[in-house]
Design goal:
Alpha-Beta Plaits; single chain; 5-stranded mixed sheet; alpha+beta; about 375 residues
């Protein structure tokens, strides 16, 4: 005990000298420390100096303070924990221990073991501080992400939406879309994020009741694989396995996260009627379900069918519109259509090809014929209503 009293007396007398040596060690061994702003550098210095004082108290009675995190890090402002990493904090601890080894153990080798034990406790304490901060930040991020996804689903958001998304790591300011489906029994959001990152996408994830909602956008710099633009259809295929049973529907691509509510509404409307298309693929695009959505009263689907199909045809040529009507009314028979129009079947083939070139839908395909027929009906109804 007499020797320990001598050690403590000597440590207290040299505390100022040890603190100065620690600051000198930080400055010489840590390049990132030298580049820090003065206020944050002062906070780091405070932590290092507190480490010296705490060691003296700890050495006096190692059992009195079994948990020394608050003692060492209490003087550090919360912003410091956000501005330096755990690795950098451990580098500070290492610098302090180096000084202890040189100045303390160098004078008294019996102090080597206490120094090692103290450095271990401080390292674990630092890890605990960062773990608690990460846990707190994770809970806050989860609440913020739920708020962002909910505002996208409802469409009730303001100009702050992009900044809130950015706070969650959303790095894209370009195209994005929304994918919806049933939530799996065991939802692992980390797996979804990893799969999205490998494909070059950022995602925002939310669960509403039994539904899983994924907002996906291209990461800055494009896909990690070859730098090409993100293929949203391919991304949806890769994320499909993370959804539960039933349909998975993705909305149309929109230009920014602020417009994502339009994609979300289309995807949700598609999910609601997906069972009406018995052979629908998985995943399926919301715009592939336009007829079912229109029959269910979806005004967005009706407007899309009219603007994308009926109006371009009506503005282009009455021959094309009449040919399409005749082809659909005659059960998609070339010969019957040709006889009804008084033209050669090859003329009908040519006009159908022109229609496909103009609007991107092939009337000879059964599913696309249904889409075209619905668009014509809605277009005529809207035209007559406006008269």
């Amino acid at each position: 005990m007499h020797k320990k009293a001598q050690q403590l007396s000597w440590l207290r007398r040299t505390a100022a000298e040890l603190s100065a040596a620690v600051l000198k060690e930080l400055n010489s061994s840590l390049p990132w420390y030298r580049k820090m702003p003065a206020t944050r550098k002062a906070a780091v210095e405070s932590v290092a100096q507190q480490g010296v004082a705490s060691f003296i108290e700890w050495h006096e009675d190692p059992t009195a303070q079994p948990w020394i995190a608050a003692d060492v890090f209490a003087s550090a402002p919360r912003e410091l924990m956000r501005s330096i990493s755990l690795q950098q904090t451990l580098q500070i601890v290492r610098a302090v221990v180096n000084v202890f080894d040189n100045r303390i153990a160098g004078q008294d080798p019996s102090m080597t073991e206490p120094i090692l034990r103290y450095s271990r406790d401080v390292a674990f304490a630092a890890a605990d501080v960062y773990a608690r901060a990460a846990e707190s930040r994770g809970l806050w991020d989860a609440r913020l992400e739920a708020l962002v996804v909910d505002s996208i689903l409802t469409g009730e958001h303001d100009s702050e939406l992009p900044s809130r998304a950015a706070a969650l790591g959303w790095q894209t300011d370009s195209d994005c879309m929304v994918i919806v489906g049933a939530a799996p029994r065991q939802l692992d959001v980390d797996m979804i994020r990893r799969a999205a990152r490998r494909a070059g996408a950022d995602v925002l994830i939310g669960q509403h009741a039994s539904r899983l909602i994924v907002v996906a956008g291209e990461r800055a710099g494009g896909a990690e694989t070859d730098g090409t633009s993100l293929d949203f259809a391919e991304l949806t295929d890769k994320l499909d396995e993370h959804f539960g049973e039933g349909a998975v529907v993705y909305g149309p691509t929109v230009s920014s996260v602020q417009d994502a509510s339009r994609s979300a509404k289309a995807a949700l409307a598609g999910l609601a009627v997906s069972k009406a298309w018995r052979s629908a693929p998985r995943p399926v695009g919301a715009d592939d379900l336009l007829p079912e959505r229109a029959l269910a009263g979806d005004s967005l689907a009706k407007a899309t069918l009219v603007s994308r199909i009926y109006r371009p045809l009506a503005d282009h040529s009455t021959d094309l519109t009449n040919t399409l009507w005749a082809y659909l009314d005659n059960g998609r028979s070339l010969e019957s259509t040709a006889r009804g129009l008084g033209v050669h079947p090859n003329t009908v083939r040519y006009r159908l090809k022109r229609i496909a070139d103009i609007i991107g839908f092939d009337a000879t395909d059964a599913r696309q014929a249904l889409i075209l027929h619905t668009a014509l009906i809605l277009g005529v109804m809207r035209r007559d209503k406006q008269k």
